[in-house]
Design brief:
This protein has 283 residues and is an alpha/beta fold. It is 27% helix and 27% strand. The protein has a single domain, classed as Alpha/Beta hydrolase fold, catalytic domain (Rossmann fold), CATH 3.40.50.1820.
């Protein structure tokens, strides 16, 4: 019996000393993105500015699920808190995780704006920071922007490759945004109010920018991504939809003209956010 015990002790000793055998299994702890506000430090001019990013995750998160991200960019003079309630129905239910950055001086730098921040670099840093989380679907990152924020999402679609689709609302492309070098097709859902007197649907010189017409803006995106330039025209709840299909990599460019809306489109068309999310989630 004593010999048997000695043999067992020797075997255990040999196993513990043999560094080539790993007798323990490391369990990776999931790094879950939850509701919180983070701060991204960025140099703007001679100062380091802390810029807030509100993150809204589902009330009940599934640690094994990867959630789409929807960035939302406020208009000039606005702030990121406005998106919390606007998109709450989607974030609370787990449709996506909402990412709401704050514009420096309450604006996005499209040229003649209060802000001189490099907002593309700011968003690049946010995306890089969020990529470390295990419940983020990096293949499904979307962006909504309103007014000045719409100009920002057009800029991001032109200059980065993060986004699967964008929804510019109440603004169209401006002449200073060069989309010609973007070789990764991005789906576009552009929404404009036919009665908009801030950024007219027919374009022109406004707010220090030269705007294309809303239709021409959508057509430019469609041309860049190799879409059929003869769109399918339909009527949705009395509004006119133009869909440019046949695009490279199955991208879609859609322009929705909301007939009775001004600059605040969602007040006239309250189903706007559901319509945008339906577009995103179909891709």
């Amino acid at each position: 019996m004593k010999k048997m015990n000695i043999f067992i002790l020797i075997a255990i000793s040999l196993l513990s000393c043999n560094k080539g055998i790993d007798i323990t299994e490391e369990v990776e702890t999931p790094n879950i993105l939850t509701t919180k506000t983070i701060t991204i430090d960025q140099r703007i001019g001679s100062q380091i500015v802390g810029r807030s990013v509100i993150i809204r995750a589902p009330i009940v998160s599934n640690a094994e699920k990867k959630y789409p991200l929807v960035f939302a960019f406020h208009g000039r003079g606005g702030n990121n808190t406005s998106w919390v309630n606007t998109l709450r129905q989607f974030t609370d239910s787990g449709a996506f995780i909402g990412i709401y950055p704050q514009g420096h001086l309450n604006s996005w730098n499209l040229g003649p704006e209060p802000s001189t921040a490099d907002d593309v670099a700011f968003v690049n840093t946010i995306v890089e920071t969020l990529s470390a989380y295990t419940n983020v679907d990096a293949e499904k990152i979307f962006a909504i922007g309103s007014s000045n924020g719409a100009g920002m999402v057009n800029t991001l679609a032109a200059k980065t490759q993060h986004f699967k689709a964008i929804a510019p609302v109440a603004s169209q492309l401006i002449a200073s945004i060069d989309i010609s070098s973007q070789n990764k097709p991005v789906s576009i859902f552009q929404v404009n109010g036919a009665q908009d007197d801030v950024i007219p649907i027919d374009g022109g010189e406004r707010l220090g920018h030269s705007f294309f017409s809303a239709y021409e803006s959508a057509r430019k995106w469609a041309a860049q991504f190799g879409c059929d330039l003869s769109p399918t025209e339909t009527t949705i709840a009395g509004n006119t939809s133009y869909v440019f299909s046949g695009c490279t990599d199955q991208a879609v460019v859609q322009y929705l003209r909301v007939e009775n809306a001004g600059h605040g489109i969602s007040r006239t068309y309250p189903q706007l956010w559901q319509h945008i999310w339906a577009f995103f989630s179909s891709l």
